[in-house]
Amino acid sequence: MTGPLDIRRPKPNTGEGALRHEHAGAVFGTDAEYRRLIYSFVTAGVQLGERICCLVSAGERLRALDRLAAAGVNVGRLTDRGQLLVMSVRDHHVRLPLDEPGGLFAWLARYADNARAEGFSGLRIMLEANWIREKLRPPEADGFEAGIDRLTGDRPGAFLCAYDRRRCGTEAHIWAAAHRDRIDPALSYRDENLQIVPVESGMRVIGRVDPRNRAVFTRALTAVVDRALSTRTDVQLHVRDLSDPDGPAVAALARTARQLSTIGLSLVVHAPSTGLLRIASVLWDELPTGMMIRP
């Protein structure tokens, strides 16, 4: 069982934090990752005394409330005291020019100002943003992100654009990378045996990969490959503190390296244990294509 993501305070250069006065992009690939993401974002807002607003596409409000409750959010209590709003955004809110009175940002600015007037410290907004990107052409999308930057820069709070990579693949990482900060729940994991920590262009793996958490490990590898596809940079895998992995985990590294090699990139494995190298030597006569070892 994993704990919530820590997204309450700035963590520069880690891609983990959705900050106050900040506009962040998040990528999730499973329902469990989505639950961790939304629970952490909402809980951080509660702790900071902010009003939380979840924006969903038209017709999705009840489903969104169910997903919040499934994530562990006390929907009834927060709604009763006016701290949680789940709102449907219709197409015309997005398509109107940013400065028009009925446009999305004028609408959100009023909610932010009202939150302050009602005694909240700010407005924390989460947007399931796939459908926004699907409706807007690239120039419109740039204007949308610029409008959010202006909104969050002028008012206390945070804005999180969440992208489901099951719907939009590697484009989710491209869109998330356009934000000031980025969150990927697949790269922020901890249980009693394994910890995965995001680092620049990759991840650090601590503990032990075993049959119980191997799926988490392979999802994290998928996430760093998706990110590499969007940034065109080699993936850095730091394993100094990884206990000897089993054969399937090492095989997953080989698959990742070969996938990266097809686009001219490499999986750079830093400080592998003698056990990992021993398993690799049993599986292959030479390193898989796309894999590099750094002591």
Keywords:
single chain, 295 residues, alpha/beta, Rossmann fold, Transcription Regulator spoIIAA, 2 domains, six-stranded parallel β-sheet, 21% strand, elongated
Folded structure, characterized:
The chain is of the alpha/beta class and 295 residues long. Helices cover 44% and strands 21% of the residues. It folds into 2 domains: 22-184, P-loop containing nucleotide triphosphate hydrolases (Rossmann fold); 189-294, Transcription Regulator spoIIAA. The chain has 12 helices and 12 strands. Strands 3-2-4-5-1-6 form a 6-stranded parallel sheet, sandwiched between helices. The protein has a 6-stranded mixed sheet with strand order 7-8-9-10-11-12. Strand 8 (194-199) and strand 9 form a beta hairpin. Residues 1-20 have low confidence and may be disordered.
Class inferred from helices and paired strands: alpha/beta
Q: Kindly give the count of domains.
A: 2
Main sheet?
6 strands, parallel
What fold name goes in the CATH topology slot of the largest domain? Rossmann fold
Question: If classified by CATH, what would the architecture of the largest domain be?
Answer: 3-Layer(aba) Sandwich
Note the run of SSEs as H and E.
EHEHHEHHEHHEHHEEEEHEHEHE
Shape: elongated
| C-alpha termini separation | 32 Å
Strand order of the largest sheet: 3-2-4-5-1-6
CA radius of gyration: 21 Å
Task: Tell me, rounded to a whole number, the average pLDDT.
Answer: 78
Percent helix among the residues?
40-55%
CATH superfamily of the largest domain: P-loop containing nucleotide triphosphate hydrolases
Separate helix tally: 12
Q: Would you count the extended β strands for me?
A: 12
Work out the strand percent.
Answer: 15-25%
The residue ranges in which pLDDT falls below 50 over 5 or more consecutive positions are 1-20
**Which CATH C-level class of the largest domain is it?**
Alpha Beta
